[in-house]
């Protein structure tokens, strides 16, 4: 099982971008999205430093709501 985290693109430089989620910034490779048009402000799913899919802002927010719900449960 793998986990991809939704992040918002802040800047792009070639196949590298800087993304942000919840105040955390990461450098992310866009290499796997070569055929996809991405720009600052877009949301992507990030797995082990690679963008694997472009998603809508609504889908990104829904994912974070689920993460918050999971983290709030007593396990």
Considering the chains and any ligands shown, give keywords for the structure.
five-stranded antiparallel β-sheet, 75 residues, elongated, SH3 type barrels, 43% strand, alpha+beta, single chain
| Level-2 CATH architecture | Roll
Indicate the overall shape. elongated
Rg, alpha carbons: 13 Å
Helix content: 10-25%
Strand order of the largest sheet: 3-2-1-4-5
The amount of beta strand, in percent, is: 35-45%
- Summing up helix and strand content along with how strands pair, one would put the structural category as alpha+beta
Number of helices: 1
Distance between the termini: 19 Å
CATH class: Mainly Beta
Biggest sheet overview: 5 strands, antiparallel
Helix/strand order, N-terminal first: EEEEEH
How many domains, in number, for the residues? Answer: 1
CATH topology term: SH3 type barrels
Mean pLDDT: 94
The unreliable regions are none
Provide a brief overview of the structure.
The chain has one helix at residues 57-72, and strands at 5-13, 16-21, 24-29, 43-47, 50-55. By secondary structure, the protein is an alpha+beta fold. The model has no long low-confidence stretch (mean pLDDT 94).
